[in-house]
Design a protein that fits this description.
By secondary structure, this protein is mainly beta. It contains 2 helices and 11 strands, in the order βββββαββαββββ. Strand 8 (111-113) and strand 9 form a beta hairpin.
């Protein structure tokens, strides 16, 4: 069971994200069935009784088909938003970087995964040329994946 629950005020979500990068390029997912075009991190909801690290490793394997060692906890994101159905969300996400292996770095743009309803596609996004692309989380644009070693905290209210 996912660590998500409905309240009378909205929905709470506890999730993880996996930062897969090669320099300033990051591997992101997109759902072609969404009405609006946007990219989001590889990751998903933490299951009840599962650690953040276990969830991140599981999601990485589910969405890429590849086992890869996690590097470190890189960011915590508190996100408050209203989804397309008008539901208010309070979301806590923990993002891990990975120690990418050659197999992970060779994922081709357009690789289909079994993630999300109806499947997702993976794509390498060049953060230096992403100003016209909607990314979730947006803080990817400001992080220095190579040199930032402390855990960053981000707060978003949409």
């Amino acid at each position: 069971m996912d660590c998500t629950f409905q309240t009378e005020l909205g929905k709470f979500n506890y999730r993880v994200g996996v930062i897969i990068h090669s320099g300033r390029k990051v591997l992101m997912a997109r759902n072609p069935n969404e009405e609006r075009a946007f990219y989001y991190s590889v990751g998903g909801r933490v299951r009840f009784g599962e650690s953040m690290e276990e969830a991140a490793s599981r999601e990485l394997k589910e969405e890429t088909g590849i086992d890869c060692e996690l590097d470190r906890l890189a960011a915590i994101h508190e996100n408050f938003f209203i989804d397309d159905d008008g539901v208010f969300f309070h979301e806590i996400s923990c993002f891990f970087t990975v120690k990418p292996n050659e197999q992970l770095l060779q994922i081709k743009d357009g690789t289909r995964t079994d993630g999300g309803p109806g499947g997702e596609y993976l794509e390498w996004i060049d953060l230096e040329h992403s100003e016209n692309i909607t990314l979730y989380p947006d803080f990817y644009r400001t992080m220095d994946f190579e040199n930032d070693r402390e855990v960053k905290h981000f707060l978003s209210r949409e």
